[in-house]
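so my prof wants the structure for this chain in the C-alpha cells format not the other one, which i didnt know existed until like an hour ago. anyway here's the sequence
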Amino acid sequence: MDRHLGPTRELQVLRRREPLSRREFLRVAASAGAVGAGVVLLGACAPDDSDGNPTSAPETVADPPTETTTIRLNKLGSLCTTPMYFAGQFLPAEGFTDVQYIKDANGDMGVQQIAAGEIDIGLVYAPLWALAADRGDPVVLLAGVHPTCFELFGNDSVQSLRDLKGKRIAVGKIDPTDLHYGFMATLLAYVGISLENEVEFVVAGFDPAVAQMKAGTIDAMIAFPPITTYMRANNIGHLVIDGILDAPWSQHLCCMAVANRDFMEKHPVAAKRGLRALLTAADVCAREPERAARYLIDTGYTEPFEATAYPQDYDSVLHTVMHMSYSAWRDFNPEDTMRFVALRLKEAGIVKSTPGELIARASDWRYLEQIKRELAV
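here's what i got, hopefully its the right format
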C-alpha cells in the first residue's frame, strides 16, 4: 500500500477547507486512480472557466446530472469513518451543493434514520445492516468501505475470545441495535458462547466503560479510534484482538455504505455519485493519509474530542488513518462479509433470515461494479 508522506502537487489542494473545483477534482481523481481509461469526462474539451466554483461537476458519459443537489450523510463519533467526512471534498464536484451531516440519534450508526429517510447514505457496521434487513427496513447495501476497525481489550483473565465465557463485558445497551452489542454478538457466536447465559453484559457508555476497565469492574470491552489510542497509551487493559490484523476479522469489511431505498430509487444518479465520492475519498485516504488527517483537523471534525479525555491533534489523527486499510473496498468482497456476519447473527438467534435471504433482500452491487471500473488504476 502506498502510504508515502510527501505531498504531491496534485493533492496540495486537499489542505484547504473549501470543496474542490472541477479542475482540482480532476487532478485529485487522477492522482487517486479515480479516472479510469474508459471514462470520458464531458466538458473536458470545453474551456475550464470554473476554477473557484466548487459546485461544478465533472460528468461521465454514463452519468447524467444528479437529480438532487442535496445529500444527507450520517455523522459518527469514530475516526475510522474518515472517508465519510473526507468525501466532503468530492461531493460538490459530483453535483451536490448542499451536503449535510446528520448526527446518529440512536446509537446505531444512524440505521433507523436511514430507514426513515432522514439520512440518504451512511456508513454502517455490517451487523446493523443485517438487523435492519431482517426487519424489512427500506435500506440497501451498496458497498463495503473499509475492513474491521474494532479492538477488543481485556484484563489479565482474558487472553482469547474463548476466555470471555463467564466474563463481564461492557456494551452501550443490551440490545442488538447497539453497536457494541452487535460487535460482541458476532465475536461470541464465532466461538460458540451464548449471549444469554454465558456472559454478563454491563451497560456503560464509552467513558464509563474505559473507567470501569481501568478500575477492574469489567473484564472486556470493544473500542474504536480514538479511544483505542488512549487505552493503549495509558495501559488500560491489554489488546486481545486487533480487527485490522487478526483473522478472520481482518479478512472482512466492517463499515458498509448503506442507502435509503426510496432515495436510491428516486435519485439513482445521485446515489451513484454519492457513493463514488465516498469511495474516491477512501482511495485518497489510503494513498495520502496526511491529507485526510489535515482535512479532519482543519474542518473542525475533531473539535468534539477536545472536551473529552481523547483530544486529537494532527499526529494522532494521522496515526489512526494510516492504521486503516482504506483501499480494501477494491479487493474485499462485501457479499462474503455479509454472509459471514449474518451467519454469526443467525447462530446467535438475533436474525431469523438466512444470509442469502438478507443479501437478496437488501443489497445492490451494480454501482460498486461500475465505480470499480471507473476508478480502475
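also thought this was worth mentioning. The radius of gyration is 20 Å.
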